Amino acid sequence: MNPEAWLRLWRVPGIGPASFTALVEKFGSPRAALDAGIGGWREAGLKPSQIEALGAHGEIDIDADLAWLEQPGNRLILRGSADYPRQLDNIPSPPPLLYARGDVSLLHHPQLAVVGSRHPTQGGRNNAVAFCRHLAAAGLGITSGLAMGIDAAAHEGALQAGGITIAVMGTGLDRIYPARNRGLAHQIAEHGLLLSEFPIGATARAANFPRRNRIISGLALGVLVVEAAQKSGSLITARIASEQGREVFAIPGSIHNPLARGCHRLIRQGAKLVETADDILEELAPLLQTDRLVAPEPPAETENPDAGTIDPEHAALLRHIDFEPTAIDTIITRSGLTADVVSSMLLIMELNNLVAAEAGGYYVRVG
Q1: Of 46, 49, 241, 338, which one has the greatest count of Cβ atoms within 10 A?
Q2: What is the spatial distance between Cα 54 and Cα 58, in angstroms, rounded to a whole number?
Q3: Residue 116 included in any domain
């Protein structure tokens, strides 16, 4: 298929996935849709603003898209082609085309979407990395949105396992957002896949991310929410996933952790509570046509050479620190030690990866 008509129609202002699909279905191809003229566009039920924009389609510049496609590793995936993922083809308003950088064959691999807070607790981030490392090692692809926080942790966990990960972006693939994840994006492009429905040059706009989220959930068999506040974009993704017929999983947390409340809300609404990554593998196995998901062997007990060698005083203080954020004043009160002693011990324990510091003077137990 000649991509130029697809790219030009896709860049017409006011023509989104639904309008694009309706035009192609009516006229047979993007080229025919562009050539239909005012009468044909009116007959297709387009708004006056859309008709006016289509009338000026000859002025639309697609040079940036074409130049990007000439670079090695960059691909355009058109709906109806063999590369287009079947999972995505079945959602409402599927993207008519996808810009891709990396291994496009990964789009046909079973995937789990993983989403959550951009500002997670250290425990939440650790959970995302550990779950995704385990799931990727079992053969499940990890799909997320390259955002800070849980998204980045999910991609990192999959990469650590040498597994599959796909990042769906809310910008053109020539722009990495957020910029802090540029290095991670390069790793994903090399070992996995970057994906977007937005044209080259598209910047980060608030309206882009709900559209991106429907692709994240649409590609996957299910969605795992790791941490989310009551009003969170992750809950929107979970709702979209449910509407698409996908499984929704949520990790519970402390009733005192605001970032657990979104997950608890999902569980009350019917999401599956998961405590281990194997809970997800067991749930998704019946949805697969093959036995590609195999839970990895648990690590040997001797894997951690430092096990059992924690300083007794640090071990005693560790019992007063929760796996959820614990205020330093609470640790002082529980332990009966002075503030100076506790602060000194916490610093050493943080260096030994026994605890992690959180904003606002909180600590979480990680070992």
Answers
A1: 241
A2: 8
A3: yes
Condensed to tens digits (0 to 9), the pLDDT of residues 274-321 reads 999 999 999 998 877 544 555 555 544 433 334 457 888 998 999 999
| 132-150 average pLDDT score | 97
Given a contact cutoff of 8 angstroms between Cβ atoms, the answer to whether 14 and 53 are in contact is yes
Mean pLDDT, range 198-202, rounded to an integer: 97
For position 353, what pLDDT does the model report?
A: 84
- CA angle (217 as vertex; 155, 268 as ends), nearest 5: 100
Residues 244 and 348 in one domain: no
Question: What is the domain extent for residue 330?
Answer: 312-365
What are 78's two structure tokens? 């058109």
SS3 255: coil
Structure tokens at 354: 């026994």
Residues 237 and 156 in one domain: yes
Whole-prediction pTM:
0.84
CA distance 151 to 185: 12
* pLDDT, mean over the chain: 91
CA-to-CA distance for 309 and 80, rounded, in angstroms? Answer: 59
303, exposed or middle or buried, with CB in 10 Å at 0-12, 13-18, 19+? Answer: exposed
- Residue 367 confidence (pLDDT): 57
Terminal CA-CA length for the chain:
55
DSSP assignment string, 128-183: HHHHHHHHHHTT-EEEE---TTHHHHHHHHHHHTT--EEEE-SS-TTS-SSGGGHH
pLDDT value of residue 129: 97
Query: C-alpha angle with apex 181: 176 to 185, nearest 5 degrees?
Result: 65
Structural contact between residues 144 and 262, judged by C-beta atoms closer than 8 angstroms: no
Number of domains in the chain: 3
Question: What are 254's two structure tokens?
Answer: 């402390």
- The b-or-e profile of 123-145 (16+ CB within 10 A means b, else e) is bbbbbbbebbbbbbbbbbbbbbb
Q: State the Cα–Cα distance between residues 35 and 82, nearest whole angstrom.
A: 26
Amino acid at residue number 136: A
Sign, CA torsion 26/29/33/36? negative
C-alpha–C-alpha distance, residues 201 and 11, integer Å? 11
Sorting pLDDT into bands at 50, 70 and 90, what band is 121?
Answer: confident
